[in-house]
Amino acid sequence: MFANKIINFNKNLHFTGTLPEGVHIMNPFRESETALACSQIFYKKYYGDNDPRHLILGINPGRFGSAMTGVSFTDPKRMSIQCEIPFSGQMTHEPSSEYVYDMIKAYGGIKEFYHHFYIHSICPLGFTVTGPKGKEINYNYYDRPDLQKAVYPFIIDNLKKQIAMGFETNVCFCFGTGKNEAFLRKLNNEMGFFKQIIALEHPRYIMQYKSKTKQVYIDKYLQAFQQVNAIQ
């Protein structure tokens, strides 16, 4: 089953390279028993089969979403209320997760969406740095050239492992039409992982800058996803 493959993949996620000074890695599957347990329930509930699915790749996990639950773009609020999976930790809110689950509802619901798609990230572990006010803030793998170089082999290795689980490779969706898309396209040109990459505006960008026209982007997502499903 996909569930067992995904759970095993997450359990074995471990970065052994050297990060640039000031950059810290987040690994919820080794740092949080709550995230590990919660994500296992989630994947067994929604991925308990071997039916074909397409990959959707974000950037890397964020502090208030998958770093808390172990599931991409799923914060504790969405995990508890929409997915109906108990969460015993801090009840954080992530705007990106809010958008994704609004989109999932419009698609036809959680079971229907996750039956066709699997969301993870180009870099499966997240990063933080200490901000000007002394608080930890999210950081992206592409925010510094030396960080991108440090995690490049890790990214390639884990994309290979995820593809080997049996996901579709005719089309891969990318969340992010800027640096994330550029990186994935360059990587794909080198490695030939996917026949086609379809990039969509990142949920965080939509919620931060385009929230008044959120439905326009939801419709764009749905059109892209439904076209791919129609030709299978």
Automatic annotation (TrEMBL):
It comes from the Bacteria. Transmembrane segments: none annotated. CDD domains: UDG-F3-like_SMUG2 (cd19375). Residues 47-226 form the Uracil-DNA glycosylase-like domain. This is Uracil-DNA glycosylase-like domain-containing protein. The lineage of its organism: Bacteria, Pseudomonadati, Bacteroidota, Sphingobacteriia, Sphingobacteriales.
